[in-house]
Structure formats: C-alpha cells, structure tokens
Write the structure tokens for this entry.
Amino acid sequence: MPSVRPLFVVAGIGDGSGTGAATARLFARSGYRVALISRGPDYLNKLATELNQAGAEATAFPLNDYTPASIKSAFASIKSHWPSSPLRVAVFNAGYGVWKPFLDITEDEVRESIDTNVLAAFAFARAALLEFTKLELETPNDGGVAGDARKRGTLIFTGATASIRGNTTTSAFSAGKFAIRALSQSLAKEFGKQNIHVAHSIIDGGILTDRTKSQRKDPSWEANQDVRLDPNSIAKTYLHLVEQDSSAWAWEIDLRPAHEKW
Ligand SMILES: *[C@@H]1O[C@H](CO)[C@@H](O)[C@H](O)[C@H]1NC(C)=O
C-alpha cells in the first residue's frame, strides 16, 4: 500500500444499488480513497457513511445538476479535501435514459440527454485528464495500487446497448450514448500516448438494482445470475481494466449475462 492512498472518483451513484455504488465499494476495499459525485444527496451520504463504517475513506460531493460548472466545482472540492492524493481512477457512470417513440420525445428530454450524457461526460473527462496529466507513471516499484500497470490514470465510461445500436424508442438516449463512445475512443487515442488509459464499457442487458427489482417483481430473474448483470460483477471488470498493464489495454469491453439474446 502506498503511503498516500490514490483517489478514485465516480460520477453517477443513482440510488446506491447499481454500477456506480458497486464500483465505489470495490475500489474502497482495494485501497482507494473514494470521491462520490451524484445528484441525490441522501443516497450519496448513505453510501459514504456505509463505506466509512467499513473502514474506507469516502466523501460525498453532491451536485444539483450535471452542468460543466457543477462538475468542475466538484473536482475543485475533491482536490481541496484530499490535496495530496493522486487521482488515479475516474468512472463516468452518470446517465439520462429516456425510452419513448420519437414523436413523443420533448425538446427538454433531448436537451437533458445531451446535457447529462454528453456535456457532463466532456466536463468530467476534462477534469480527470487535467489531474492525470500532472501525475508520474505508476511503476513496478512504487507500490502503487495499480502495480506495474505503467499508467498515469484510468478513465472509464459506462455505456449501454444503445451506445452502438439505435432502436425504436432510443432516439434521444442512443444519440447521447453514441456520443460518449465517440468521445472515449477519441480520448483513448489522444491520451494513450501519455499512458492514460481510457475505456468504454458497453453494458448489454438488465442490471440487478433496487429499481429493476421493483419494476420486474420477478424473483427468478433476481435469483438467476445467467439472465441479469450483477453490479458487483461489473465492478470487478472495472477493477480489471484499471489493473491492465500498458502492453494490452482494452479500449472497449462489452458485458452481458450468459443467456442474454444479442
Ligand atoms: C429493440 O426494441 C424492441 C422493442 O422494444 C425490443 O424487443 C428489442 O429487445 C430491442 N433490441 C435491443 C437490441 O435492445
């Protein structure tokens, strides 16, 4: 364990039962300080308390909205909270989903999709990359959490089936998700040369969260790991991305349960 713990930041915690929260829990257990960015201060504070009670160092940085100004100010607060902790991992897991026939989609919903899925992703990436570019490489002997990964940092974007395929009700949602994929590929190429690892993760299938459980009310779906994604399993893959060494980096991964039709 390095003397100064590295910092992990995740945006998009939802109700604390999905990918963002599971990833925060796993990175906390793996020795990172954890900065939680999200709307919904109640869920955020609850997760921070849970992590701190488990012996981690976690702090909630609640946002009113996902505007670039709010994201910039959250990163400034993180920096003043932990001035000596190097930011090594940033996960953009925030999103705005709208599934409606095209003619029913309002201008506000289109704007919200662009604001949260695109503008916020740009602002988050900018803030994280400004930190990563200042850091030295983690090398085999410095005891860094990422070991011999030879990277300055890892930036992961959570995508969806709609990142690569439009469908009948996804015009606004997939426009946003396609944009994040294009952003992440561009960043992977631009910043790879500085040993900054940018990855895009396509989550292709239903994720087991409190919300999907209450929507489906189907105990057999909940119980059968072959048919739905477990957020803890997604988190394991995110940690694996962070641990990949610089001779074999994945830009894109896609994850789906064994029995998913695709
Ligand atoms: C596309 O939408 C249809 C109708 O809602 C749905 O049955 C199908 O599973 C969707 N396809 C994908 C790849 O999500």
